[in-house]
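Quick note —
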Amino acid sequence: MAGKVVKYPQLLVGRKRKSIIPRKDLKGSERLFHFAELALITPSVIHDIRSYITSIRANAEIGDRICEDDKAKEKFRKIVEITKRAEQMIESFRKLYKGEIKEEVGNVRIGEAIDFSIKLLSEKICGSGINLESRVGHDIVCKGELNLITHAFINLINNAIEAVMKSDKKEIRIWAENVKEANGTKKVEEGKGEKSKTEKEKLISVFIGDSGVGIDEKIVRKIFKPFFTTKEGGTGLGLYITKRIIESFGGRIEILGNKEIEEQKKESGDFLKDIKTVFKINLLRAIENVEER
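Predicted structure written out below.
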């Protein structure tokens, strides 16, 4: 069966075009067109960005070779390291959107992903008065793909940085805990076919909290929707992409309510004293965790 392009007819009224799509459905149709446009231009944009990054890395490598100043050489090496990771991340996104990422799923040390995210954002943090503390060790391991999991944490930590910029107290906290058991549905092979069975999945919960002004309850319901943003010049895609990454590895992301935040504060003492907003990320725990050995 041949495919067809569906066009929305419009009525011309003077110089203005009047859509015959019901007004209540207009936002949904516009969002659909946005997704279609993104799907068309993404491969081209990825190719262009990769070319720019390759050029930046090549120039940084030349700078490292010919420069005699140790501090400058260190900066060049940092550029090389970050651009290499950026190239890997672009390739991971390509596989995610082509449905090939399952082949890349392995064990990811969450502490390593968070440490790199903080390192990448260090220029933004330094000199800003932000006090960022992370209590996530490298012995906590989840199922996923390193570059994509790292990108999700970069988005969330960057959001926290932006949230505290206008706050008197600029506090960011990152911590994690093992969740013993959670119900999950998993497909298992049986003979020639497949069936679904419910079993207990072991999870890791990662928390990223900040002392910003908090998030209005009305916004919480919309915050993970594509193109929704409260930021001037924002795309509204950061948290949507983060949510898609987490869910592609069987995880879940949510914003804790006030009651849940207070419960966390009781258990942590002064560590979370000024925290007002907390993102909670559940990820499938890998068997490499110390407790599992």
